[in-house]
Amino acid sequence: MLAKLSKRPWSRSCAVRPSVRRCAAAGAVGLAVLGTGLAATGRTEPDLDRFYDQKITWSACEGLELPKDMQCGTVTVPLDYTRPEEGTLELALARYRATDDPRGSVVLNFGGPGGSGVLGLAHGRKDFLGLTDDYDVVSFDPRGVGLSSPVSCGTDATSRALEATDGEELADPREVLRQLREVAAECTEHSGPVLQHIGTVDVARDLDVMRQALGDEKLNYLGFSYGTRLGAVYAARFPEKVGRMALDGVDTLTEPLAEQGLASTRGQQTALENFLTWCTEELACPFGQDARDARKQVVELVHSLDENPVPTDFGYEFTGQDLAGAIGQGLYTKEMWPLLQQALAQLIEDGDTSGVEELATGGAAPAAPRRADDPVADPEDVPPDNLPAALMAVNCADDPDRPDAERLTRDLARLRSEYEEASPVFGPYRLAQVVLCYGRPKGTDYIREKVKDLDTPKMLLVGTRGDPATPYRWTVQTAERIGSSAVVLDNRNEGHTGYGSSECVHRKVDDFLLYGSLPSNGSSCGPEDDDRL
Predict the structure, then answer these.
(1) For residue 162, is pLDDT > 90?
(2) DSSP letter string over 213-242?
(3) Which runs of consecutive H residues, i.e. helices, occur in 375-426?
(4) Degrees (nearest 5) of the Cα angle 94, 385, 319?
(5) Spatial CB neighbours of 81, under 8 Å, sequence gap ≥ 6
(6) pTM for the complete prediction?
């Protein structure tokens, strides 16, 4: 089931032991300190040369059921790029070798934020084999994700955020903020130091260290969903290092987090209604054969699990908000619908949460909650909330909006109404992810202020008209913001991203990455262009 589940590796939407380390001496990281001159980026930053001078040692992947032809490795990066002497992280990488002598690498990011690149590459293998004609195809677990020091907030953060802002009349604003800060403190306790350095600006810098460690002068890159935000930030930070860059399912660079969440809520509700229409035409549908009644049953099921969570085999209770997250993961492509139907049937008919748990965790094996300083003995031992915890942490770090208590409470009443109207299933879940930012430090303004008018080679941006997570208008807006470097491909299909479901998109992206052949700006792909929809 894992292989099938991870067929959708790119979601808007697994782990070596946590490796945040103190390094009082250079030997603690096993790398030579070469001095404090110019780093490989051309910027004067102390001690970064030792990170840029490293090489990746590749070997067989151990501890997970991964393809035999996939290799794994690690790269060491600073915990804090402004104080590189204070600690390091080990980031997990995986690759498929080129069939002949490679002319370099193409690096993939499967989105989330919070999606595991190791699992995404493993289980999306067949989609990327064409790229191995010329490239080593590489992906990675970003800091805080999967195998790279996974973050966690404990399993009830979403439910506690809802409780803090629930009721006919909101509590004292100071009490709301106190509770949200309490949850934020628990996230820090569970996650450790990496939580304070998990934003996209840091991951973009990690990506440049990887580029150098891979031996590539330029970064060739394919990013999905959130991975498009990462690609755009990298291009702004390292324009002279951009090679061929394709961005599929383009994220917004400017909309406030609350508006992003609302757009995704509406998209997921539309996708849910489409799924239920399909499901009720099947005899195996656990909701019967009436689509309108099925929509009511889903709402009732979520509410029922919030009131009476189901114990799991992994030491935590599965709530209605967990179910909302699981359903959202299962709606990204039509290919996932049979799996979602099966998982829901197991839950409703047998009380078996295993299917929906696997959806909720993005395909990673759940594990019991842990403290940040506990060793992780097994590479599958990933916190069950790692995907949503990482998603929330990165989105908060990338968003500079932090209203005061009075404005927070005033906005919450309005937002709660808008989110619940957009979707009674996904509204509370998505809103909880937004309000949890208010207990955290203010995020960066770099993305809004600096990621624009890029002076890079041409970049291919793919937007899908029926995308439930990244609306097509975000592709148009981001292309305008990037400027003359952007070339837009209009995918007139349904689903989140196009590369894995549209032969036309797949072919045009591969042609660009392999041969540098770009479609004309504004050209399109549609159902009539595809053989495998």
Answers:
(1) no
(2) HTT-SSEEEEEETHHHHHHHHHHHH-GGGE
(3) 386-397, 405-422
(4) 145
(5) 45, 48, 202, 205
(6) 0.84
* Longest alpha-carbon distance in the chain: 70
Instruction: Tell me the H-state helices in 7-63.
Output: 49-52
- Strand runs (DSSP E) across 125-235, as ranges? 136-140, 219-224
**Which secondary structure element, helix H or strand E, spans residue 76, and what is its range?**
strand 70-78
Write the pLDDT tens digit of every residue in 341-366. 999 999 999 989 989 988 876 654 43
C-alpha to C-alpha distance for 517 and 376, rounded to whole angstroms: 45
- Classify residue 459 by burial, with Cβ atoms within 10 Å: 0-12, 13-18, 19+: buried
**Cβ neighbour number for residue 531 with a 10 Å cutoff:** 7
Range from 32-36, 128-132, 384-388 carrying the lowest mean pLDDT: 32-36
Calculate the average pLDDT of the chain: 84
* CA–CA dist 427, 415 (Å, integer): 9
Q: For Cα atoms 526, 528, 533, give the angle at the middle one, nearest 5 degrees.
A: 80
Q: Which amino acid is at 320?
A: G
Question: What phi, psi does 74 have (nearest 5°)?
Answer: -135, 160
With contact defined as beta carbons under 8 Å apart, do 220 and 109 qualify? no
Q: What is the DSSP letter of 337?
A: H
List, in order of start, the domains of the chain with CATH numbers: 1-149+195-251+441-533 (3.40.50.1820), 152-191+257-360+403-439 (no CATH)
